[in-house]
Write a structure and sequence with these properties.
Strand content: 5-15%
Radius of gyration: 36 Å
Largest sheet: 8 strands, mixed
């Protein structure tokens, strides 16, 4: 919004040196004129304070040119105050400050909106710093009105309570008529509109051939490229007279101003006379050749102007080609515009495709850095050239916009103005929809807002192309979406925070009653309600924070059960961010922190993640549940086993003791599985087999499948190591069947990856390939480094066995090129296997030097205490020395 402050210079001196009644009368006249000027330009006069006035542009209705309106109003006020005075009182002057930015509003029982915020304070400081008869504009006001006002040199002025601020004196206006807030796309290539340009050319030829008027209306949202298309069309014409005019967005006596701009001053002032004279003028021009009349912004045209265009097309004689540009707003008042006549066509402009946007970005910003922001611009610009331009500009000025997803201020006003032109009831529905998100259903809206004519309001918004239907009418749970994400973001910003809080809470509770299967969405809305309540210091802040914390933890637990570690970590961290507001107890906080630490470790395996796990474990004994403590101890043992077998055994022993004391049989099986893994790391294959056999027996007797799949997979690997392929096949088959009955995707991945290696050992290369490919797909979904590395090993082994050695080599090289993966402490074992497998391929291909370098690096970085990677290193060493590697180890 744009705020204007104006103050009379030297009012105290006036009162002293002149009759108080004369001064009061004179000031009353001036202030009345001031109010009239402000209202004419679309302002809300917030208040008069003695000899000063404050006005706001953008409340209660936003316009895309609010900054320009404020400057035009200020300019008109200066002129009004500069008029000669009658009587002895000297001329009075104003000083004006204008600033654009975010403000907080809250209406009262009076007509005032109580506008507050730093932007308001800055406008007041600019007014104080202005010289008599001067307008000082703030940075965003200058940027938004750069094309319509002339500004002087930058001035830095002190502002009490804010610091030094930038200000620009306004030296004049570029045009006496409002521009409507146009934001041109400078130096942009003409891209993506070749088809529409050909259509315009064909219609031009058709209209010329008939010798009659022809109307083409280019329709589309703001910034879609209507003017750019018309410019390109007009530039390509030869032998035609091109006349151009436009419709201003507001002003007195401008109903037929576009015609008067072409005809010039006329003695005939009545509407029929002007329209008739215009028709005759164009007919006379058409006698000498083709005439093209371009009328822009007819969505702002008053009815007489629209009638005049239609009359011209229906009644005039001669080759007069009329091209109009309009936003879709026009169709609200004239839905049939541009249709229903044989000599009229409506040309609707769709968004640009991604390729065209890429060319547009190159033309606007040829720097190499532009390529890096292209994905962001594609996602946020959504094919609108103006939006693409403004996002590029915003990114150049503030890279943080790519993180926060903020709306560039140049676009915020544009979209807010369009939404404010929507009927009030429909606008309320759109604001409720924005709380739900970009995509929503009527059922969701009904849970947020009580609107008896909801279907009618949605149909109205759809007709105005603010929302679009993603599913046809009659579809159950029919989905709707904002036509552009900007519509959603700006609509959401227009919802008062208190109402947002209530609507988020209402929607969260409703979502919990539906059978959506995913708790994350309900948790998100509970979290938003809590954050807003805290920001507003609401009486319900504590209750909403506790609810948000609980919902986020529940959603995180659901994601964790599905092995969605990324989703679980994000949700747990968001819950922890609410813990203080929710006044959660230490045990609950620690449990949440522990869950987050394990998810972090699974995703990264970094030193920082290990340190967090250690910190949590150090605080957990006696505070968290036995089940969680067992899990933390086992996780720590899997890290210790790489370098310190004794330490790993101590962690496992403690885990077994905790599970036994708690009589928790599933966790006891889990801890004993970890003990079996230590046997494998020590090279005790028989001990591992016996321990795993007991674990599986105990789980089956207890009727639990907890950790059954990993145990069966380990038994299959154990059998492979011992050369018992028959037992390996049996255990692998059982693991695959068991994995189909569990929700954990990581267990399904493990079963597929082991099955691939077992099939290779039995020479069933085709089946090994199918399992490897399925494991690779699942690894991508998991997004975890360990799964990605093991999938690469399985796929490379299959490719090599099938004879596609180059593909196997590329897979391994790609995996090892991931510097983050290679650097993670927990990944040293699997990285050693990757290097060993690649060394074998290099050696077999004759690259002995490369193979030796890989082998040396693998040996240097391999875990000290875990013997399992050593077998792969020995196989690689045999290949490097020219000896054949054992098939089972190569697999």
């Amino acid at each position: 919004m744009t705020v204007l402050f104006a103050d009379i210079v030297g009012s105290t001196t006036l009162t002293v040196s002149n009759d108080p009644e004369v001064v009061r009368e004179r000031l009353s006249v001036l202030f009345a004129r001031t109010r009239d000027i402000l209202v004419q330009h679309g302002a809300t006069v917030e208040k008069f304070i003695g000899d000063a006035v404050m006005a706001v542009f953008g409340i209660p209705t936003a316009h895309e040119d609010d900054a320009e309106r404020a400057l035009r109003a200020a300019h008109a006020m200066l002129i009004a105050f500069a008029l000669p005075n009658v009587g002895p009182m000297q001329r009075v002057e104003l000083r004006v400050g204008v600033n654009t930015g975010e403000v907080a509003t809250g209406s009262t029982e009076s007509d005032q909106f109580l506008v507050t915020g730093e932007s308001v304070n800055l406008a007041a400081r600019l007014q104080t710093a202005a010289a008599p008869g001067e307008i000082l504009a703030g940075p965003l006001t200058r940027r938004l009105a750069a094309g319509v006002a002339r500004f002087g040199a930058l001035r830095r002025v002190p502002a009490k309570g804010i610091g030094e601020v930038e200000a620009w004196p306004v030296e004049g206006l570029a045009s006496p008529v409002p521009s409507g807030g146009h934001l041109p796309v400078p130096s942009a290539a003409f891209v993506g509109r070749e088809r529409e340009l050909r259509v315009l050319g064909a219609l031009w030829a058709q209209g010329t051939a008939t010798g009659r008027p022809y109307l083409v209306s280019a329709i589309g949202p703001a910034g879609i490229g209507k003017t750019r298309l018309i410019d390109e069309f007009a530039a390509g014409l030869t032998g035609a007279l091109v006349l151009r005019t436009r419709c201003p967005p507001y002003g007195e006596g401008l109903a037929l101003w576009p015609i008067e701009q072409i005809l010039g001053p006329m003695p005939e002032t009545t509407q029929p006379n002007i329209v008739g004279a215009f028709q005759r003028h164009l007919e006379a021009l058409a006698q000498d050749g083709q005439v093209v009349l371009i009328v822009e912004d007819i969505h702002w045209a008053e009815q007489p102007m629209l009638d005049a265009i239609e009359q011209l097309v229906d009644r005039a004689r001669g080759p007069i080609f009329v091209v109009c540009a309009a936003r879709v707003d026009l169709l609200a008042s004239r839905p049939e515009w541009g249709t229903g006549r044989p000599n009229a066509t409506r040309l609707e402009l769709p968004p640009l495709d991604d390729a065209a946007v890429g060319h547009l970005v190159d033309s606007l910003d040829p720097a190499p850095a532009a390529a890096s922001v292209l994905p962001f611009v594609l996602a946020h610009g959504e094919g609108n050239p103006l939006f693409v331009q403004e996002y590029l500009r915003a990114l150049r000025e503030d890279e943080g916009i790519a993180i926060g997803g903020g709306v560039p201020p140049t676009l915020r006003g544009l979209i807010a103005a369009r939404l404010d032109r929507v009927p009030q009831e429909t606008r309320a529905v759109l604001r409720a929809a924005s709380v739900a998100g970009r995509t929503f259903t009527p059922e969701v809206l009904a849970a947020i807002i009580d609107e008896p004519r909801l279907d009618e309001r949605l149909a109205d918004a759809e007709r105005l192309e603010i929302i679009v239907a993603l599913d046809p009418h009659g579809t159950a749970l029919r989905r709707l979406s904002f036509a552009h994400m900007l519509f959603r973001d700006v609509a959401y910003a227009g919802v008062p925070k208190g109402e947002r809080m209530r609507q988020h809470d209402r929607l969260s509770r409703w979502l919990e009653t539906t059978e959506t299967g995913d708790l994350a969405l309900a948790a998100h809305h509970a979290e938003q309600a809590a954050l807003l309540a805290g920001e507003l210091a609401s009486d319900s802040a504590l209750a909403l924070a506790r609810r948000g914390f609980a919902r986020l933890c529940a959603a995180a637990g659901q994601r964790r059960a599905r092995t969605d570690s990324h989703g679980a970590l994000a949700l747990y961290r968001r819950a922890l961010a609410l813990a203080d507001a929710a006044n959660e107890d230490p045990a609950t906080r620690l449990e949440t922190r522990a869950r987050a630490a394990m998810a972090w470790l699974r995703i990264e395996g970094s030193a920082a993640a290990i340190a967090e796990l250690d910190a949590v474990l150090a605080s957990s004994r006696g505070l968290v549940s036995a089940s969680l403590l067992v899990q933390l101890l086992v996780w720590r043992s899997t890290i210790s086993v790489l370098d310190d077998q004794a330490e790993a055994e101590r962690f496992v022993a403690e885990a077994i003791g905790v599970a036994e004391r708690a009589n928790d049989r599933p966790r006891l099986a889990y801890a004993r599985w970890a003990g079996a893994d230590l046997r494998a790391a020590a090279g005790d294959l028989d001990g591992q087999r016996d321990a795993l056999t007991a674990v599986v027996r105990d789980m089956l007797e207890a009727g639990t499948s907890y950790w059954l799949v990993p145990s069966l997979c380990d038994l299959a690997e154990n059998a492979l190591e011992r050369g018992d392929t028959g037992a390996a096949e049996s255990f692998s088959h059982d693991a695959l069947l068991a994995s189909e009955r569990v929700a954990a995707a990581i267990h399904r991945f493990r079963a597929l990856e082991v099955a691939s290696r077992v099939r290779l050992a039995t020479q069933d290369v085709s089946a090994a390939g199918r399992y490897a490919e399925a494991a690779t797909v699942l690894a991508r979904e998991l997004g975890e480094p360990y799964a990605s590395a093991r999938a690469a090993l399985a796929s490379a082994a299959y490719r090599r066995a099938s004879g596609d050695v180059p593909a196997a080599q590329r897979l391994l090289e790609t995996a090892l090129a991931d510097e983050e993966l290679v650097a993670r402490p927990t990944m040293r074992g699997v990285v050693a296997e990757l290097r060993a497998a690649l060394a074998i391929i290099r050696a077999e291909g004759g690259d002995h030097a490369g193979a030796q370098a890989l082998l040396a690096r693998a040996r240097a970085d391999a875990p000290a205490a875990d013997v399992r990677p050593r077998r792969h290193l020995e196989a690689a060493e045999s290949a490097v020395r020219g000896r054949e590697a054992p098939p089972a180890l190569r697999a």
